[in-house]
């Protein structure tokens, strides 16, 4: 039975760019926005290897400034800009083990992927939004930015915490021009990237992936709902936030963690 929300074309005529939009949360967001009528552009480092359907795909490594310029130029040439920018790109693939195993190169990589790619994309696409006095930017952050684990997420958490602060200040700056900037911080999501993270961490510590999953739940203090999120659950929130129904929402950070964060 079709979800009645899916036939609500509240984004009809909008152009949306979703970075990292071929897998996991990014793909779920891209698909959700398309079902609401948006023309969706996705990026990833490599072609996803399957039909992108209604999504226009651009291969790009957005950790490099010249690749951001490439995406901006192609989007402008094909679509004339964007109304919705979803900065979903991010990765936690660096060595675990704390400060002693992390080099300057590791820290630079974390910042390029998880912070500066979004800064550059915003800087590229914001002038058109300012000129039309409308637009929505969503930064997909992580609860790791508020709940860092030294043994596994140190540079990733630091970069996401910086993204949170940047997103808040940008929201304050551009709100008078009619642009909304919002942060969404997912917790554990059942994605390919999370599966690989758990499998790799388990292999390095000599335990099973199942044991490592339970250890991660315990290390985070437990998840009251008792499971990881499905990417589609985060995508539903993002769809609402970019829709006209959320027209008074900006500068906030929405946590989607199943009740995990032990703070108010």
TrEMBL record:
UniProt-listed PANTHER family: 3-OXOACYL-[ACYL-CARRIER-PROTEIN] REDUCTASE, SHORT-CHAIN DEHYDROGENASES/REDUCTASES FAMILY MEMBER
Organism: Spirosoma terrae
MF (Gene Ontology): oxidoreductase activity, acting on the CH-OH group of donors, NAD or NADP as acceptor
InterPro entries: NAD(P)-bd_dom_sf (IPR036291), SDR_fam (IPR002347)
The organism's place on the tree of life at top rank: Bacteria
Keywords assigned by UniProt, alphabetized: Oxidoreductase
Name of the protein this chain belongs to: SDR family oxidoreductase
Cited Gene3D superfamilies: NAD(P)-binding Rossmann-like Domain
Family to which this protein belongs: Belongs to the short-chain dehydrogenases/reductases (SDR) family.
Claim: Transmembrane helix is one of the keywords in the record: no
